[in-house]
Amino acid sequence: MSRPREFTKGKIHDVVVRPLSKFLDERGWLAELFRSDEIDPQVMPVMAYLSMTQPGVARGPHEHLDQTDYFCFMGPSNFKVYLWDHRPESPTCGVRQVLYAGVDSPLMVIVPPGVVHAYRNIGGDNGIVFNAPNRLYAGESKKSPVDEIRHEEEAGSPFCLD
């Protein structure tokens, strides 16, 4: 099977989406982002980082050959998350999935290798995203090539953010 140039709407095989619960008390709230007893050992995070995205700004689309991303969208803004199954061997190859996540719908999203992904801050505030991938960025001591195929500048790309 070849890689698709057109995508249909649906849910993507191997993408895990789980609501994040906020536990409230008089001090504020707490949310568990991940627990080792709830994660497949193959996607266990090896590093973590936060990113801030300004309102209206998008990150991606890009994909990884080996890395699985473990995103958590908690706020203080909202995001439109775009996923495209670009894996020729996947039963959902050619499927596009869109999620809404953030302060109004806190979500954890596991994105496996070969699933092209992007997100746009659709809220009015700066948005914070947590990611805990299962591979080190640029490998041990940052001495390896970065596992990323970027599609942002690709002419005629099928990975369009609307």
How many β-strand runs?
A: 13
CATH names the topology as Jelly Rolls
Indicate the low-confidence ranges by residue numbers.
Answer: none
Query: How many domains comprise the coordinates?
Result: 1
Q: How do the helices and strands follow one another from N- to C-terminus?
A: EEEEEEEEEEEEE
Q: Quick one: CATH class? A: Mainly Beta
Rg on CA atoms, Å = 16 Å
Helical element count?
0
Largest sheet: 6 strands, mixed
Shape: globular
The CATH homologous superfamily is named Jelly Rolls
Instruction: Estimate percent helicity.
Output: under 10%
Structural class: mainly beta
Distance between the termini: 27 Å
Strand content: 35-45%
Mean pLDDT: 95
Write the CATH architecture name.
Sandwich
Strand order of the largest sheet: 1-9-8-11-6-13
Function: Catalyzes the epimerization of the C3' and C5'positions of dTDP-6-deoxy-D-xylo-4-hexulose, forming dTDP-6-deoxy-L-lyxo-4-hexulose.
Organism: Geomobilimonas luticola
Protein name: dTDP-4-dehydrorhamnose 3,5-epimerase
Biased composition (Basic and acidic residues): 141-154
Keywords:
single chain, 0% helix, 162 residues, mainly beta, globular, 5-stranded antiparallel beta sheet, Jelly Rolls
Give a structural overview:
This protein has a single domain, classed as Jelly Rolls (Sandwich), CATH 2.60.120.10. It has a six-stranded mixed β-sheet, with no helix packed on it. A five-stranded antiparallel β-sheet has the order 2-10-7-12-5, with no helix packed on it. Strands 3-4 form a two-stranded antiparallel ribbon. The chain is globular and about 55 Å long. The protein contains no helices and 13 strands. The model has no long low-confidence stretch (mean pLDDT 95). It is mostly beta strands and 162 residues long.
